[in-house]
Amino acid sequence: MKFVIIGADAAGMSAASRAKRNRPDLDITVLEKSQDVSYSACGMPYNIADPTRDIDDLVVRRAEVFRQKQGINLLTGHKVTAIDPEQQRVSGITGSGESFEFSYDRLLFATGARPILPDLPGIDSFGVFTLKNLEHGRRIKNYIHKYAVKKVIIIGMGYIALEMCESLLAREIKVDMIKPNPTFLPWMNPELAEQVKKEVESKGITVMAGHKINKIERTGGRIIVQSENVVLMGDMILVAVGITPNSEIAAKAGIALGPGKAIAVDANMRTSCENVFAAGDCADAIHVVTDNKAWIPLALRANRAGWAVADNICGEMVSLSGVAGTAVFRVFDMEVARTGLNEDEAKTAGFDPATVTVKTRSRAHGHSGFGTIWVHMVADRPSGRLLGVQMVGSEGVAHRINAPAVALLAKMKVNQYCQSDLAYAPPFGPVWDPTLTAANQLIKILHN
Amino acid sequence: MKFVIIGADAAGMSAASRAKRNRPDLDITVLEKSQDVSYSACGMPYNIADPTRDIDDLVVRRAEVFRQKQGINLLTGHKVTAIDPEQQRVSGITGSGESFEFSYDRLLFATGARPILPDLPGIDSFGVFTLKNLEHGRRIKNYIHKYAVKKVIIIGMGYIALEMCESLLAREIKVDMIKPNPTFLPWMNPELAEQVKKEVESKGITVMAGHKINKIERTGGRIIVQSENVVLMGDMILVAVGITPNSEIAAKAGIALGPGKAIAVDANMRTSCENVFAAGDCADAIHVVTDNKAWIPLALRANRAGWAVADNICGEMVSLSGVAGTAVFRVFDMEVARTGLNEDEAKTAGFDPATVTVKTRSRAHGHSGFGTIWVHMVADRPSGRLLGVQMVGSEGVAHRINAPAVALLAKMKVNQYCQSDLAYAPPFGPVWDPTLTAANQLIKILHN
Question: Which of A21, A161, A186, B271 could tie A156 with a disulfide, CB 3.0–4.6 Å?
């Protein structure tokens, strides 16, 4: 059986490796347009922060290992331009301009996503970067080094933008952040978002939310972001305003798309087209809270979906439960996490949300060195079901979000979650875990 | 309605405060034999570690606040010696030798537990301590100061013993540990227990497991522990070999006891005797994994059960789901956690356990500063149900145990747990959370 995979990062290489382990006789070809395979994209901000480290440290497994040790026909510099679902063939062009064509019995789209580039004059100027793949990271790192960058303007304030703030400051590079939307972290409860904003500003970063950008301009070795009321000048611009799935080739072949124009898949990662699968940032998923389709591109799902495709191709039907959108990021000395729906998403999904925000200590009463943890919890008023949790704090947030994430998968009500027997010791939290304190408060609201 | 509570720590004062909030007209009397109320017992090792802090820093709310602001008749120095369930009366004696008697409509046993004292010659010597209540902590702290303690022998190797190691070393006091059982942490998977032992030994502590102790002796200002093959000499002895519930008065009144001689309660915290409740370290609970009774005295349960009693007395019937035995402690630079059953407990409960132990990084590939996390996971072979998890590591263990704890409450199978959408960011863990890696491995075993 010929298994062809388009894209050689998390989803693609997870699928390739696992399929080969499942069935060593499989004929697996991976077509990757870039020269980079199987790397930790999420690690790029931390790698960029450290000038002594090579960006290729982020490579999890080198192409040679896949080729020689695993017997996977991994072809880099192979850009797929079309698929023919009738003939079960993919075609494209190599980096050196040669055409190629492969037939498949099973095909996997693991084409990922790419940064959104806003339609701005000067967006293609020298010194304007995005950060999604390893080549982006490499270019940024080289540019910072070569041009001794002292000041970066970041357009956007999402988690990549925020992680890059920390990364750049670690290299003693000053940062201004700007974006048109006046709300700092629009998906986050305002009280919690304010804590993150304060943290960022406390590090000397100027946060300008609500500034429409008119143009980018390169002038006299520097680069300028011009908005209505402010002109920002720096040595480099990072555009981090979100990503969009690489689904055009699939769409062109008639494969159905889902939310965010991601490739629509069922619980088995099958697309609308026979023998064609999709996994990773290019594919959608069922949301465990809404049971509706959602596009929430995250690394764990990409790996898990890649495995599921491999198993399904090899005859062991695996279906995935779906995603809760559980995510965490660090911004300087603050941990920021979420799982499930926020209040607006809950309303959109047809729930009647009740919410609570609590502020608790990160360690027990009488234990020194404690910080503050804010928990925002959302539940459905009529059913009492837990819908989502957001959390920020100086410590103890990153892994704490996982308990409500499991509760979402189990479709627990708040009054069930608040019976969870969670761990307690003075260095690690109060007797009542902050998420339990939030649940206890929320129950009171639900009962009224 | 007269609500009488015996014991003024976590369970007792949680019940008193909440009952008063629920129904301000309640006539609440709390009878406490000591002079200490409402303190963070778990914080004692950390407080003892710091000579600049007063042990009373651990008091969460002072007796005067309960009396004056909350209108609770809190009587310290009141030792209850008997109850008469027919007449609904409790009687006892005060610190100054006066008898007292109170009638009740509802009674709560929140009598806690006390340290076990092994039957050893010399166990009552000057300089031999246990650590369970605030007075114990106060005595230890005073003794260390007054006698400039340089060396402590700890009998026992449970979590109090281990936390006290850290505490004493912080005060530059040397520690030897000794106990008769040859297994270091007998409830823990040996591979994980070995990591904890190494951590303790790496700090210069002598760990002598498997040494039967013959006697304790005070001689020439020092104190000696004599076993078959070794004589240990120190300035102080801490006996930390476990605790036993204070259930004698209840038993004498004909109230049924459960496992570990704890007072047997139903899901509403009712004892076998009408209008008599029990909560906290003196009471048993349903185990969420086995559905059998278990005695696992922990702080969160004490607080939660206290609240449940208050609500039940005030007419809002609350039943508790039970305990998973989720616990965490820190030993120097290591976090140690567990939830649910270990392999032996699983067998005893009639399961057919399959187990796996995995060793993972605490941070992502390519992220600096990572440590190691060991996860041991237990499942039931025929049903695939998750039964328990143990974890040790240098970071990221304490809150990570909560995700499987919620899964236990939801009675999840391993193949459900491994679909959990858990958080990932490079500073906080690998893409696959260590508990997911363990679950993925365990599934393979379960399928074979």
Answer: A161
Contact (Cβ atoms closer than 8 angstroms) between residue A323 and residue A267: no
Residue B216: burial class (beta carbons within 10 Å; 0-12, 13-18, 19+): buried
Cβ–Cβ gap A426/B57 under 8 Å? no
| DSSP state letter for B264 | P
Asked if B423's CB is within 8 angstroms of A337's CB, the reply is yes
CATH superfamily of A2-38+60-113+244-313: FAD/NAD(P)-binding domain (3.50.50.60)
pTM: 0.96
CATH code 3.30.390.30 region(s) in chain A: 337-447
**Interface contact A423-B50, CB threshold 8 A:** no
A311 contact residues in B (CB cutoff 8 A): none
Q: What is the pLDDT of residues B133-166, one digit of tens each?
A: 999 999 999 999 999 999 999 999 999 999 999 9
Q: Could you tell me where in chain B the CATH 3.50.50.60 domains are found?
A: 2-37+60-114+244-313, 117-239
Write out pLDDT tens, residues A15-44. 999 999 999 999 999 999 999 999 999 999
| Residues near A198 by beta carbon (within 8 Å), at least 6 away in sequence | none
Q: Which residues in chain B have their CB less than 8 angstroms from residue A56's CB?
A: none
Cβ-Cβ contacts under 8 Å, B421 against chain A: 288, 298, 300-301, 322-326, 339, 405, 408-409
* CATH 3.50.50.60 intervals, chain A: 2-38+60-113+244-313, 117-239
Distance from CA of B80 to the nearest CA of A (A): 28
CATH number of this structure's domain A337-447: 3.30.390.30
Which chain A residues contact residue B335 at CB under 8 A? 428
- Averages of pLDDT over runs of 10 residues in chain A (448 residues) are 97 97 97 94 95 93 92 97 98 97 98 97 97 96 97 97 97 97 97 98 97 95 93 98 98 98 98 98 98 97 98 93 97 97 98 98 90 98 98 97 98 97 97 98 90
DSSP state of A361: E
**With contact defined as beta carbons under 8 Å apart, do A305 and A364 qualify?**
no
The third-level CATH classification (topology) of the domain covering B117-239 is FAD/NAD(P)-binding domain (3.50.50)
For A296, the closest chain B residue by CA position comes to: B421
For A54, nearest residue in chain B (alpha carbons): B366
Residues 6+ apart with CB under 8 A from B41: B9, B10, B58, B132, B133, B134, B299
Length of chain B equals: 448
B335-447 CATH: 3.30.390.30
CATH top-level class for B2-37+60-114+244-313? alpha beta
User: Which residues of A are the active-site residues?
Assistant: 42
